[in-house]
Structures are given as structure tokens and as C-alpha cells.
Specification:
Blueprint lengths: L6 E5 L4 H12 L3 E6 L2 H13 L3 E6 L5 H15 L4 E4 L14 H29 L2 E6 L12 H21 L4 E8 L5 H9 L3 H10 L9 H12 L10 E4 L7
Parallel strand pairs: 1-2, 1-4, 2-3, 4-5, 5-6, 6-7
The structure holds NADP nicotinamide-adenine-dinucleotide phosphate (NAP).
GO molecular function: oxidoreductase activity
InterPro entries: NAD(P)-bd_dom_sf (IPR036291), Sc_DH/Rdtase_CS (IPR020904), SDR_DHRS6-like (IPR051122), SDR_fam (IPR002347)
Family: Belongs to the short-chain dehydrogenases/reductases (SDR) family.
Length: 253
């Protein structure tokens, strides 16, 4: 139980990577705030955690809403008595070049990936800094470090998360709060399944994802949860401002 006494907010924990992080942190004793919009999926994640003896609650939040995020941070601290770990994981990919993306689509990708990370940090960092303890884990992407075809807004938004992580680390590491970032490569989640299904040739799309890697397989959400656990563990006190690729070697290729 290496996260005993910790309370974690995990955005986008109703699905995929966020759900795996919520389950993994709970296995290590953290109390978990499962944050997302879909109540049914959120409550299912909470039930699964509780059935294994963990403690979790669902918080219905649109992470692009200033008001929702502020209320959520206040409610989590009231509900669990403290807050020590933030995982900014909620995200959205909309395909398109700068020519064919509409301003609304562009804005939506930025609000969901980047503004949400700012908002959750804006409302929770004062608390973490005051208690001089905390770990913030921002989920970027392989797309935050490389250019990908038809992913203009997503690449730009995920690169912004890398930059924001470094800036937050510079601002707050001296206050005892560590801020780190994970850049996952393709991970088998509903998000990726949607991308594959929407492609004109789904088999080819999957093959393309695979060919980018050194490993003969794609990632699973648990691979990213294990990396997030490393950043969350208080004993890893010397790690801050780090950008960790968990991508089957794609960046090295
Ligand atoms: N899968 C990959 O290959 C991959 C690779 C690199 C990076 N990533 C990043 O990893 C993160 C998780 O991706 P995933 O693959 O696990 O995706 P997913 O299965 O589609 O899950 C996305 C999560 O984000 C939440 N979300 C989206 N918009 C939201 C909003 N406005 N307010 C609150 N919650 C919102 C969704 O919750 P609700 O539906 O309940 O609102 C859902 O829980 C994302 O940031 C993604 O960009 C994924």
C-alpha cells in the first residue's frame, strides 16, 4: 500500500488510461476522485474499485468549465479531507489539418486537453503548495513530441502540455510539489478504437500505429498507470519536470 494516505483526483477516469490509473492508485491505497462527465461509466469505475476494497467517488465534471472544476476541487477536499495527487488525463483528439479544422474544433481540442490542465492546476495548486506536498501528473502524448499527419490541433495541444509541465515544475518544485508528464504512444483504449474505426482502412491504420514502435505490440492502459504510479510515489522525490515517453520506443525510432 504505497499510496496509503494519498487522495488523487484523476480527470477522464471514466474510460481508458484514466480508469486504469484510478484502479492502480486505489490498489496502492489511495482514495480516488473519479472525474468525468459520463455518470454511468464513472459509477461503474467507482463500483469496481469499491468491490476490491478501495475508496472512490465519482465527480460529474466538464473539465473545460471553470465553475465545474472549481467546485470539484473544493468538493474533493471536503469529501476526502485532503488532496495530494492530480492526474490531468482528460483529453480529446479531433483529426484535421489547419486547413480543414474549424475554429470550434480547434478550440474544443485546446479546451479539453490544455485549458482543463490549467484549470485543475489553477484551483488545486494553492492547496498543494500550502501543504508543501503533492504530485501533479500531466498526460501529454507521443503527438506532443512529434508531428503527425492530420493531427494539427492535437499535436499543438499535447506540446503545450509538455511546456506547461516544465513551467509548473520551475514555479512550484521548490514548494515540495512535483510536476511531471507522461507521453504515451498508442494505447488500446476507446479513443484509439474510435480513430481506427473511423479510418477508411481500419486494418491499415492499426498496422501504421504498430509500425511506429520498436515493440511488436501497442500499449495497454495499465502500462501508463504503472508510469503514473512512479510519479505519484512520494519516495520518488527527486523526479520533477520530467517528460517520460511510454510509447514502445516510438520516439527512439
Ligand atoms: N490512447 C492513446 O493511444 C493515447 C496516446 C497518447 C495520449 N493519450 C492521452 O491519454 C488521455 C486518455 O486517453 P484515452 O485513450 O484513455 O481516452 P478515452 O478512453 O477516450 O478517455 C477520455 C477520457 O476523457 C474524459 N473527457 C473528455 N472530455 C472531457 C470533458 N470535457 N470533461 C470531463 N472529462 C472529459 C472522458 O470522460 P467522459 O466521457 O466521462 O466525459 C474519458 O474518461 C488523453 O489525454 C489522451 O489524449 C492517449
Amino acid at each position: 500500500m504505497r499510496l496509503h494516505g494519498e487522495v488523487a483526483v484523476i480527470t477522464g477516469a471514466t474510460s481508458g488510461i484514466g480508469e486504469a490509473i484510478a484502479r492502480r492508485f486505489s490498489e496502492e491505497g489511495a482514495k480516488v476522485a473519479v472525474v468525468g462527465r459520463n455518470k454511468e461509466r464513472g459509477e461503474a469505475v467507482v463500483s469496481a474499485i469499491k468491490s476490491r476494497g478501495g475508496t472512490a467517488s465519482f465527480f460529474s465534471v466538464d473539465v473545460t468549465s471553470d465553475k465545474d472544476v472549481k467546485n470539484m476541487v473544493d468538493s474533493v477536499i471536503r469529501h476526502f479531507g485532503t488532496l495530494t495527487i492530480i492526474v490531468n488525463n482528460a483529453g480529446l483528439v479531433v483529426p484535421g489539418t489547419v486547413i480543414d479544422m474549424t475554429p470550434d474544433q480547434w478550440e474544443n481540442v485546446f479546451r479539453t486537453n490544455v485549458t482543463s490542465t490549467y484549470l485543475v492546476s489553477h484551483y488545486s495548486m494553492p492547496y498543494l503548495v500550502k501543504q508543501r506536498k503533492g504530485s501533479v501528473i500531466n498526460i501529454s502524448s507521443e503527438a506532443g513530441l512529434k508531428g503527425f499527419k492530420d493531427r494539427s490541433a492535437y499535436c499543438a495541444a499535447k506540446a503545450a502540455i509538455v511546456g506547461l509541465t516544465k513551467a509548473m515544475a520551475v514555479d512550484h518544485s521548490g514548494s515540495g510539489v512535483r510536476i511531471n508528464c507522461i507521453c504515451p504512444g498508442t494505447v488500446e483504449t476507446p479513443m484509439v478504437q474510435r480513430v481506427i474505426d473511423c479510418h477508411a482502412n481500419p486494418v491499415l491504420m492499426r498496422e501504421e500505429f504498430l509500425l511506429r514502435r520498436l515493440t511488436p505490440y501497442l500499449g495497454v492502459p495499465e502500462d501508463i498507470a504503472e508510469a503514473a504510479l512512479y510519479f505519484a510515489l512520494p519516495e520518488n522525490r527527486y523526479t520533477t519536470g520530467a517528460i517520460l515517453s511510454v510509447d514502445g520506443g516510438a520516439l527512439a525510432k
